[in-house]
Amino acid sequence: MSSALQADIVIVGAGPAGLFAGIAALETDPHARVIIVEHQKKPGRKLLVTGGGQCNFTHGGSIKDFIEHYGPAGAKIRKVLYAMSNEGVRAWFSRHGVETIERDDGKVFPRSLAAGDVLKALRESFEALGGTLLCETEPTQFDVKGGPLGCRLELLGKGGEISISVHSCIIATGGITYPKTGSDGSFVKMLEPVFKQHSIRFSSFSPALTPLYPEAYPFASLEGFSLPVLLWFEKETKAKLEQKGLLFRADSFSGPAAMDASVCGDVGDAFFINFVPDESRPAQEVAADMLKQSRLTKKEILTFVASFFDLPKKLAEALVCWGMPADFKKLYARDMSKAECILLCERILRARFVVKKRGSSGEGMVSRGGVALEEILLPQMSLKKAPCIFVTGEFVDVTGDTGGYNLQWAFSSGYLAGRSAAQALLPKEL
Fold it and tell me: pLDDT digit string (tens) for 16-30?
């Protein structure tokens, strides 16, 4: 059985970007007919697992400080972020019954620490404004009409085949992380002919914000231990490095330091860790100071290193034993050679690792890749070569740091996509 639906705007994907786009469209034009289609049984499944189910949906502070948290894309998306800022997002949720809290590290959560409250506010607002949500509905064909505007979608829903012709389509399908939640990249294949026809550049999705798997990982004994460090890739600059938490796993590094840096690294790339981030002097200079002090003590090397660098003993032991003879830690500090001292300082202040493999889609918090920013009319979020198509969130090649920056991008880009699509429906002023 087939049927036809009448609509002005169709949104593919009922995650935070899609729902917020629908809300923005209906707030801009209350008469617009807006449909969101979602192939999962329920909307927002990935949102529900964000932040361990607590939903860190933005970051505190000034929006102008956000720019540096999106890498090279930051300067290009400034106007998008400013149009719906972090304060704007918090204010919206407050108006809809979701009060927020900000942790000492700047992460913003719903006061209830329940992602379900965030999703409920989004869904109820969209439906209260008159929007239609179709779950368990899978796009099977997507076409851009011959004119300057207009799209047609063929869908397969619970009741059979559905055809929708609309003024605009907003793509909010996300990337490829957490595929069990519906973020599986399946809609990309349907768009390939459209992108090819209009020569729209699209980078294949890959997991981002993943653990770092180094070759010859030496810290299995530290599994579960964490501390603030500086971590950077060889091909990058240290100019804007921040201290971030590093979590040791049995076979890899995780935590914000590793996951944020993973966006820049590929297999074979070298990265460095400073385990004493307050010490910025070159390793050889620190080693010279260390040698002077070691000559004045009878402490074992392990005890001396832990004291000298103010390191937890378990970390000091792992660093002292890394690549050294088994009995090295039992030596007195005064017995260290100059070469051994320099090596220790290099391992502590500039430890070098090489990426063995990338994290999987099940480990990545978000995806990198998507539609190139150069293909998008900013801040409207429409494709320059196909202006009836708007793109949002992870479907765009923008990846933010951990800490709420990616959900902020979803809300900001979704807001402008929805508003812009609705404005195109309104009569032009004479």
Answer: 999 999 999 999 999
